[in-house]
């Protein structure tokens, strides 16, 4: 079926194809890779532009205290932030979901919602849900109360937290 000449043609074709790919890769490296042959990522600077002091020694801007942000909080904007919470919490009194009801939560004793089983981590951190405690918890729940059952990663924006707490303050209580 196969004779020596057919086998020689097949092997020659494969070798020729390999050679074309190797030469093509080498040519592409020279054209597009800058001709550095194997030194990928090492590009010498053709020239440098001297820059005078860019002011990198200035101190970082200090964050505004939460109390000031909370004093200017907008409950209407907090209602929009509430969307992040409503999948696990309810605002109706006594209605618990995955998380406890947040009806009257601002000023409420921690772990006091009837019918909800709290983790001991929350009760060990603080006694009352003050705006400051809620701020710390909402920023990073697992950092503020290690071992908490709440799996939410937290709200990073202090204004969002303040607005949400102001909104929750208008609900119940």
From TrEMBL:
Residue ranges of every copy of the Cytochrome c domain listed in the record: 73-172
Keywords tagged on the record: Electron transport, Heme, Iron, Metal-binding, Transport
Pfam families to which the protein is assigned, alphabetical: Cytochrom_C
Source domain of life: Bacteria
GO MF term (any one): heme binding
Keyword check for Electron transport: yes
Entry annotated with the keyword Lipoprotein: no
PANTHER family, per the entry: CYTOCHROME C (PTHR11961)
Protein name: Cytochrome c
